[in-house]
Amino acid sequence: MTRILFPLFAAAALSGCGSFADRLGLGEDRPDPDVSAATEAAAPAPSVEASATPVLTSGANSAESLDTTTAEEREAATKPPTAAGASLGETVVSLGSATEPGLWIKTPLVQNEMPGRVTNPANGKSAAVTLIPIEGPATAGSRMSLPALRLIGASLTDLTTVEVSAAG
């Protein structure tokens, strides 16, 4: 009896394994990997014109090349404010869409779009930005533009705590 039950038990236990199940005829209908590879190799590559995603040139793979702000915009954003704005609180920021231009922070700390300022408490650098509301509790994180992160000396890959205030 053990000689009959063990092979059945083993077949049932291994039926979830794709290649073993395929060999026993127990698996789902899966495309033959050799046929799929041949089909992919024969398929033409999509043209650049047909692509909806912007294609970056070889030089567009650095933060410098993706930062589309002008020197004048960066200088204006880093000028000290004439009056202190109302503090809205602290938030943890990460890099937002690197291809979205401008100096902005998308944060749940505001209900309406408005001018504001972000300050990196680690080094004291600040920048004038547009505060853009997003849904979520005030304790939720925020996303900041690549140029704004660069101006305040924040890491593009780490999470950074910043102070957010309304424009003064």
Structure description:
Keywords: Signal. This is D-galactarate dehydratase / Altronate hydrolase, C terminus. The structure is a single chain. The protein is globular. A six-stranded mixed β-barrel has the order 1-5-2-4-3-6. It has two domains: 2-42, no CATH class; 65-166, RlpA-like domain (Barwin-like endoglucanases), CATH 2.40.40.10. It has helices at 2-13, 18-24, 33-42, 63-66, 71-78, 146-151, and strands spanning 87-95, 104-107, 114-119, 126-133, 142-144, 160-166. It is an alpha/beta fold and 168 residues long. Strand 3 and strand 4 form a beta hairpin.
Poorly predicted segments? 35-58
Q: How would you spell out the order of helices and strands?
A: HHHHHEEEEEHE
Cα shape: globular
CATH architecture level-2 label of the largest domain: Beta Barrel
Major beta sheet summary: 6 strands, mixed, barrel
How many domain units?
Answer: 2
The CATH class name of the largest domain reads Mainly Beta
End-to-end Cα distance: 86 Å
The main sheet orders its strands as 1-5-2-4-3-6
Share of helix, binned = 25-40%
How much of the sequence lies in strands comes to 15-25%
User: What is the CATH H-level superfamily of the largest domain?
Assistant: RlpA-like domain
Total number of beta strands: 6
Region (Disordered): 25-90
Protein name: D-galactarate dehydratase / Altronate hydrolase, C terminus
Organism: Sulfitobacter delicatus
Signal peptide: 1-21
